[in-house]
């Protein structure tokens, strides 16, 4: 019988695969080519037990994980679960630009203890001000007193805090049953072979996709996990690709920007020595998928053996653990839809228009496209809110009963073709099912409506990004503002060049003209800003609401070309 909780999975593999490698961390902080630290399943279990024994917690207490990326993060997370507590995967306070989010999350979850490392401890103590017990997981010699609290499948395993792209962070309550079900769904949808696979990840372990790919999936399936620090990827993206080619059957995942970053930054000499024909698959998710970026990545690494069918466009969100839909073993499918029809809520193919990447179909769960106003399930070809129903959907938001009911307790009305009445997860995402596959149109809260017409931000943002080579791809934000009883659209775009005041005005005028021609949208304002001034969420998505707030607070200075 398969283990039904995460601690039980660890104990199982520590017995069955005691001396086989469980976890490798490629540390590039001191050596350019990296230094490997590996733990076997038995060594990992021993370290987890020692850290769990040092935790001053009772069942149900929250334990915040404030470790740097690495082996200690995995140990700290699993120690919290082994001690019977609820883990809260976070990050050490040194992560730039996220102190406010960390403060808000800690206040919300009220941890009884914090796990970190001895090196990070001084910064953590300073940040917390002595209010919470701190345990350095790399300096424990405690022994876990058995029998440890025995978790049950419906017990809460961890709180996954959302990235906050349209709201303040909220902790999704995920049980052991939720996360193990989602791993099983992903195995089925991706065709992952547990007998041969290795997972390779640079994604932050505090992020849903990073946690499930780099820690939970290997733990449930008994796979080897290879981790690296996100900063090491940013410094030299080829490191990720090298690790992927080290062993046959490697799986990984990344947001769209990583594919663009690799295609742009990896040198020809480095590409020549990569062995990407050994890669089993790379999931592309966490933000709208740009078909041009996929084409560029596939072209850049074709000589290294990478095949387009290894790229798996997918859709998911923290409220559903992470995985919802993915494509089969085939090259990504790109469909061009009529822009005006899509704005009116209908998918109709056209020779020229909006190019969207298919994100496949669900495995082991239901996905419905629903009219968000009437809760009526829509037929294929109609744009609606994406609703999800399945054993992977979380129990709600931590200590937010009203938000939980609204988001996790939706029910369909009318004739819904045999789909469950509920409860359904309302994702807040717009999509359309066309020719059996799900296409993502955007976020409901990000939709820009001007003169009665719907405009999807990422569509307009792609047009703006193509206007000038100096505009940074993936660093454009479109949002709506209100004035004179009407809604207007504003674009804020990062520009890497040195522009004179006149060249700024000329470029802004060009952006206005091309957006008007392509989308029938008259921009109220165009603002060009230096690199790093378009805010992002912790997962790297454009935070359009935060960008709007900065604009309305006049943080971008004098607006251009009014």
Describe the protein.
The protein is α/β, with parallel strands linked by helices. The protein has 3 domains: 6-315, 3-Layer(aba) Sandwich (Rossmann fold), CATH 3.40.50.12780; 333-444, Luciferase, domain 3; 448-552, GMP Synthetase, Chain A, domain 3 (2-Layer Sandwich). Helix content is 31%, strand content 25%. It contains 17 helices and 26 strands. Strands 2-1-10-9-11-12-13-14-17 form a 9-stranded mixed sheet, with helices on both faces. The protein has a 4-stranded parallel sheet with strand order 4-3-5-6, sandwiched between helices. A 4-stranded antiparallel sheet has the order 18-19-20-21. The longest helix has 19 residues, at 501-519. The protein is globular. The chain starts with 5 loop residues before the first helix and ends in a 10-residue tail after the last helix. The mean pLDDT is 91.
The outline comes out as globular
* Number of helices in the DSSP assignment: 17
CATH architecture of the largest domain: 3-Layer(aba) Sandwich
Q: What is the overall pLDDT average? A: 91
Rg, Å, rounded? 23 Å
Q: Which homologous superfamily in CATH is the superfamily of the largest domain?
A: ANL, N-terminal domain
**Unreliable runs:** none
Please state the structural category: alpha/beta
CATH top-level class of the largest domain: Alpha Beta
